[in-house]
Amino acid sequence: MIKNYFKTAWRNLVRNKVFSLITISGLAIGTASFILISLYVINELSYDRFHSKAQHIFRINTTSTTAGMSTDVATSHSPLAKALMVKYPEVVAATRLLSIGSLRVGLEKENEHYSEDKMLFADSNFFDVFSFKLLKGNPKTALVNPRSLVLTETIAKKYFGDQDPMGRQVAVEDDTVSYLITGVVADVPANSHIQFHMLGSLSTNTQWNDNRWIPGPYVHTYVVLRNNANVKALESKMREIVYKYLAPEIEYYSGLTMANWEKAGSSTGYYLIPLKDIHLRSTSSDELQPVGNTSYIYIFTLIALIILFIAIFNFINMATARSALRAKEVGVRKVIGSSRGRLISQFLCESLLVSIFATIIAGILVTLLRPSFEGLVGKRIDFGVTSGYGGFLLLSGLAIIVGVLAGCYPAFVLSAFQPVKVLKGVFSKGGSSRWLRNFLVVAQFTASIIIIIGTIIVYKQLHFMLTKNLGFNKEQVLVIRRPDVLNGSLNAFKNGLVTNPDIRSVARSNTIPGKPYPRRSYRRKGETESFLMEFNHVGYEYQKTMDLKMLSGRFFSKEHGLDSQAVVINETAAKLLGFDDPIGKQLTTPWHKGELMTIIGVVKDFNIESLRKKIELVALELIPEDENMDGYITVRVNAGADIRKTVKYIEETWSRHSNGKLFESFFFDDDYESLYKSEFTAGKVLVVFAGLSIFIACLGLVGLLAFTASVRKKEIGIRKVLGAGIGKLINLLSADVVKLIVIATLVAWPLAYLGTQYWLRNFVDRIAIDPWTYLFAPMSVALICAVAISFQVVKAALANPVKSLRTE
After folding, report:
1. Is the pTM of this model over 0.85?
2. pLDDT tens digits, residue range 484-497?
3. Any idea which of 16-30, 256-270, 619-633, 724-738 has the lowest mean pLDDT?
4. Which one, 162, 167, 345, 503, has least CB within 10 Å?
5. What's the CA gap between 126 and 131, in Å, rounded?
6. Whether the Cβ atoms of residue 605 and residue 472 lie closer than 8 Å to each other
7. What would the pLDDT profile of 509-539 be if each residue is shown by its tens digit?
8. How far apart are CA 136 and CA 441, in angstroms?
9. For 556-593, b where at least 16 C-beta lie within 10 A, e where not — what string?
């Protein structure tokens, strides 16, 4: 019986080639889009869940408040891990990770230097806590000894080929002591927030393991809790650590007792965040990797469902529209004894056959488009939908679900026809089927309008972020990493650059906008209230190089010998400090052991982070000329200069002064724009899949119009004989469509407004809603529909009316 169902279904598909092609194409594209987006969403939701202890692993974050300003960082004090293990029995294990900003590790291979920037330092029990697979070496001892190094499989193969790297010595750049390779770990999965190419032992440097709490290295601390541990209770108990260990340090550096420090509006503490929540739910700074955004998960999930249901709606539309043509078939089948249940089975088999073909094509499309999709979202996604039993079962299940969803309503409608009325020709083409078709078309148009509006607003916000005056000029700036490797040749290198007429200025700095800023607390002279500020050490030429605008006072100058005890602040800091005229006023900070710092200038506010965050208080101090500090060298190239030639000159100058050290640079504007990586990804995904959703909707509309034109060809023929022109025929076929577009627009506008406002709330600075955006979307849909209608009308108009009347 089932064989006969599928045989009959196959014959119907072959007999109605246009209907079959439109339906299968729409379902295939919709299903492929759904699969791709779903895999991306699943990948985002699966972060860090591959660890065997993931349920019990938490990271300890640090919160602090100073002068009403709150901070939340993903790091904590280095001695905290040991204190937790000693004090609280619910903590089974604690391990630390250290990421050293711009540290670059150069490995020697046949007298060539290479650079690897993904190096972390970890405690010896790292592999006990996390389930990274060690291919070579002992996980218990691989990171015990100082100067131990574990490489990933790819890096080991890169430097040693097929040779065994175990026990080999690796010279780390600028280090007189070599590291010993003690392990090889499988490449880190893409869905891990801990990413590394090399893993060094945290016991290498005693500074990272002493008992200093403030100031001291800040590390990422992870703990494994017992099964029945109460997380909230543990967080409360960790206040004891603050009062026992941090209070003496705070009193030493601030001169205030813990009680007075808290009375002044300051506080600090710890909280735990589950490992599985870090990627999507963390709002902390100093993350090891850029985190995801739950808003985009919701948006992408919605888009995937919209596209799939648009394709399903096309199938339902076409099937119900063709119900009149199959009415007699149903009547004959019922007369000869077919039950309604068998008819439902027959039509569901047809739907399943269409869905199976569409899903097979979708699987092929997903496999072919995988590299392009990974490039679109900017990350590797591990999947194989056309290989393995898992992929086969998923595709089979999807085909069945889509087939049942798409064929259920048409099957029940067609099987309900009464044979007596149908065979007498009393069957009505209107009724509930027409209302359903109109509802589905409105749903398709509504979805398309919402997606168009969302895409436009996302791209307008991105354009706004990239073109907004940030308070500095990010164009024509080359940034050089690791100036500390120049040692005593730094000034000679800078002097060599400024002799080039294509270079405007050169400056040093500890950090740059878009990179993490350390924080320091400052107090007004003679007062106890502290203000936490984003801090940066900068050179004399920094204001000129970054094109910062001075609002009052001056910037650091070699002509003023006391500028080592001076500070430049931004206008936000000037306002919150409460100075009417801040120039000449004095501040003090624990890092200067109480020495007074004189405010010599106020710069216009500039964004050191993305526009998602408000502008904070910023303090700039002069970088010590004789101190070999890590950080960056920024080089402003004159507008109109030959960039390639200038960069080559900079690299050659570096080679003359760096004693063969690796030259590493990037353009500042490219790096700063990476702050909006998630927005760019969302924008590209929206554009691509918005286009696909509109294409699928139009594909169904073309099929529906083609069927309508074929059903009404006798009417069209009569109107042509009576003198009707193309304009009147267009009005005939477009009247209903225009009404549906108007209804869809009225439904789409409030939904689009709510959705875009939900997304825009992520940004402190955002665009204003433009009414033209809301008008453009329905006009675009109307234009596409007009093209589809015109095509059908021209086709009908060119047909011989005599032939259509005779054959009808």
Report:
1. no
2. 778 778 888 888 88
3. 724-738
4. 162
5. 9
6. no
7. 988 888 878 777 788 887 777 777 888 999 8
8. 60
9. beeeeeebeebbbbbbbbbebbebeebeebebbbbbee
